[in-house]
Write a structure and sequence with these properties.
The protein has helices at residues 14-23, 26-43, 45-48, 86-121, 127-138, 142-153, 157-184, 187-194, 199-207, 212-235, 247-254, 263-290. By secondary structure, the protein is mostly helical. It comes from Roseateles puraquae.
C-alpha cells in the first residue's frame, strides 16, 4: 500500500491570524458591528436624516417619540425643546462627536509617537526634558486640563480637539518610549545599526512597526475617552457651541426637561453609552488579538 502524501497546511497570514483572534472574542465582534453601524449612520447623516438638524418646528416642540402617547410619525424619535428633530440631531451629532474624537486621537498620536521615539533614542539629554514635561501634564486631570485650555483658547470645535489632544499626549509618549526601549537592544536593531542605518531609519522603519500593537490598542481606548470628554465639555457649555448638534451639547440643553420630556436626555445619553461601550469592547478585542502573551495556546 503506497503511502499517501498529505500536503502541508500553510500557516495563516498575519491579517488572517489577527482576524481569527479578534473574532474569537464575540463581544468585540458584536461591538465592531454596532460601532460600524453608528459610524456609517453618522457619516451618511445628510442622506439618512429626515430633517435639517437645526430647523425648528414650533408647532411640534417636545413631541414624544413615535411609540409614545402623543408621538408623530413625522418625528420618529420626537423633538427637543425647540422643536428640532431628535433623530436628525443624533445623526449629525455623531459626525461631530466621532469626528472630534478621531481628530483628537490623530493629533495626540502623531506627536506622541515622535516624542516617545526621541526620548527612547536620546536617553541622556532629550529624554529627561520630554518626560518631565509629560509628567507635569499627566499630573493634571484630563477634563480639568481641557477646561483650562479651552478657557484660554475659547470654546469651539477646533479648540475642543486641541484641548483633548493635549490631555491624551502623555499617554502616547510614555507608551511609545517604553515599547521602543524594549526593542532597542534586540538583535535585529543591533544588526541594522551595524549595517549603517541612520537614527531616523532605526526609529521609524526598524523599531516603530514593532511598537504599533500597544499603540493601536491605546488609540482605540483613547477614542472612547475623547468622545466622553467631548460630551463632558459640551455639557459644561465649553465645547461645540449651539446650534451645531453634538451629543454632549444636546444633553446640556435638555437637562431642564428631564422629568417633562425624558427622551431628550435619554436618547443622547444612550447614544454616548452604546458608542463608548462598543469602542471599549473593540479595544479589548484588539488587545487580545495583537498581544501574543494573551493568545491561547492550542
Amino acid at each position: 500500500m503506497s503511502a499517501v502524501l498529505e500536503k502541508p497546511i500553510d500557516p495563516p497570514g498575519p491579517l488572517r491570524e489577527f482576524w481569527q483572534g479578534f473574532t474569537a472574542n464575540r463581544g468585540a465582534f458584536i461591538a465592531l458591528i454596532v460601532f460600524a453601524l453608528i459610524a456609517l449612520a453618522s457619516l451618511f447623516a445628510p442622506l439618512l436624516a429626515p430633517h435639517d438638524p437645526i430647523e425648528q418646528y414650533r408647532d411640534f416642540m417636545l413631541t414624544p417619540p413615535v411609540w409614545a402617547e402623543g408621538g408623530s410619525t413625522r418625528f420618529l424619535l420626537g423633538t427637543d425643546e425647540l422643536g428640532r428633530d431628535m433623530l436628525s440631531r443624533l445623526l449629525h451629532g455623531g459626525r461631530v462627536s466621532l469626528g472630534i474624537g478621531l481628530a483628537a486621537v490623530v493629533m495626540s498620536l502623531v506627536p506622541g509617537v515622535l516624542l516617545g521615539l526621541l526620548a527612547a533614542f536620546f536617553q541622556r539629554w532629550l529624554s529627561p526634558a520630554i518626560m518631565r514635561v509629560m509628567d507635569i501634564v499627566l499630573a493634571l486631570p484630563a477634563l480639568l486640563l481641557a477646561i483650562c485650555v479651552i478657557t484660554i483658547l475659547g470654546p469651539g470645535l477646533v479648540n475642543t480637539v486641541i484641548a483633548i489632544a493635549i490631555g491624551a499626549l502623555p499617554g502616547y509618549v510614555r507608551l511609545t518610549r517604553a515599547a521602543a526601549l524594549g526593542e532597542i537592544n534586540r538583535d535585529y536593531v543591533t544588526a541594522s545599526r551595524v549595517a549603517g542605518a541612520s537614527v531616523w531609519r532605526l526609529m521609524f522603519i526598524t523599531v516603530l512597526p514593532n511598537c504599533m500593537a500597544p499603540l493601536i490598542v491605546n488609540a482605540t481606548l483613547s477614542f472612547s475617552s475623547a468622545i466622553l470628554e467631548t460630551a463632558g465639555l459640551g455639557f459644561l457649555g465649553l465645547g461645540v457651541q449651539a446650534p451645531t448638534p453634538e451629543w454632549g451639547t444636546m444633553l446640556s440643553a435638555a437637562r431642564d426637561y428631564i422629568t417633562r420630556a425624558p427622551w431628550v436626555v435619554t436618547l443622547p445619553g444612550l447614544t454616548i453609552l452604546v458608542t463608548v461601550l462598543a469602542i471599549n469592547l473593540m479595544g479589548d478585542g484588539l488587545r487580545d488579538a495583537l498581544d501574543p502573551k494573551l493568545k491561547k495556546v492550542a
